[in-house]
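Lab notes, practical 5.
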Amino acid sequence: MSKVYETVIGLEVHVELASKTKIFCGCSTAFGGAPNSHTCPVCTGMPGSLPVLNKQVVEYAIAVGLATNCSITQYCKFDRKNYFYPDNPQNYQISQLYLPICRNGGVEIETAAGKKTVGIHEIHMEEDAGKLVHDEWEDCSIVDYNRSGVPLIEIVSEPDMRSAEEVIAYLEKLRLIIQYLGASDCKLNEGSMRADVNLSVREMGAPEFGTRTEMKNLNSFKAIARAIEGERTRQIELIEEGKKVIQETRRWDDNKEYSYAMRSKEDAQDYRYFPEPDLVPIVINDEWIAEIKARQPELRTEKLERYKKEFGLPDYDAEIITGHKKFADLFEATTEICKKPKKVSNWIMGEIIRLLKENEMDPEDIKFSPVNLAKVIELADSGAINSTVAKEVFEEVFKHDIDPDKYVEEKGLKTVNDAGELQAVVEQVIKDNPQSVEDYRNGKEKAIGFLVGQTMKAMKGKANPGMVNKILKELL
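Output from the prediction step:
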């Protein structure tokens, strides 16, 4: 009988925090920027320069810790992790080993298999390294220190996950919590959220964990799922062949769907950690924690329940809208103006999601104001414009955030509700289409749809379809 294997997975998730300046200096953390333009003597590791801790970083770390049910380490400090790497300017990284800021938390995830809690071993603060750019033309590597010193938190989970599905559910949960807190935008494609996967396999029911490997270079949920599948298969094949799995760091190549060894896995002693001599310990008193707790926003789980209760949204709508902070903010602001929650929800789930897909945009890229979305909803709802025109007007709002009222006025798009004017057009349409009139009188109900269409065409889409229908039926 063939053996059944269980996959054991733990994650190290690095999140770039949303502070405007770096963790130990006043340089900008903005993404992009000309190489080495967001730098100073501190973040390029110049001799004699001294770090000064950014208070905002500590507050974000505490906020994430509280939202993930961690206990906050009220006396915590930084340590030096010593290693040489070309993009690491000081030859050490300021991190936290002995007293990380948050410990022993956990978040609840839900998958097809049901609910479970994934434990969080710790969350610690650290600085990011620079970035090597490999120039194949010149056959050299050049370094950009813009990212060096950008504040990170590293969220280290317990080895509680057993499948790619659970890993994605856990990452989605973390991403939403952190986005709702405003602690990071968590854009995987820009590297502001990165996950390293620690994975081992063991025979089902075995008490001991197998030998684990760590996989790096994962910048999308799809790549993470593929890497887990690929590494699980590789390890099982090795075991079945009677070979040993080596503890090492591997790099996942998503194009080739294959991972290859980077280096044998270092342990803490390889980094010769010692307390950071240039920074004093951080003392976090109860008042400070209480103050941050009081500022915590409503997170997704509470929002979901409130949207169903307060606005009467169906489960499906509430799930989609709260699934993105930008959608939730837009929904609340627009509903506040027009007081039509279900209509707002329909626009977000229909036209807005369609246009985002068509333009290959993320919800964060939405630039139009809730005021203008509310105006489109009001115009359509009052019958001032019909649904076809409403979609056309909204497309302009989506692209250029135009004022819908002015746009409708200038382009003459208001629905014609004048019975006299409509009747004249309908009479002409009847005159021009004797065959359809004949068909309708012979019991072909569909023929009236054609006549409505012809009338709308003649009115350049601005007629009230209900009135057109009514007039046609009366005349026929």
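Observations recorded by the TA: The two ends are 78 Å apart (CA to CA). The chain is about 40% helix and 20% strand.
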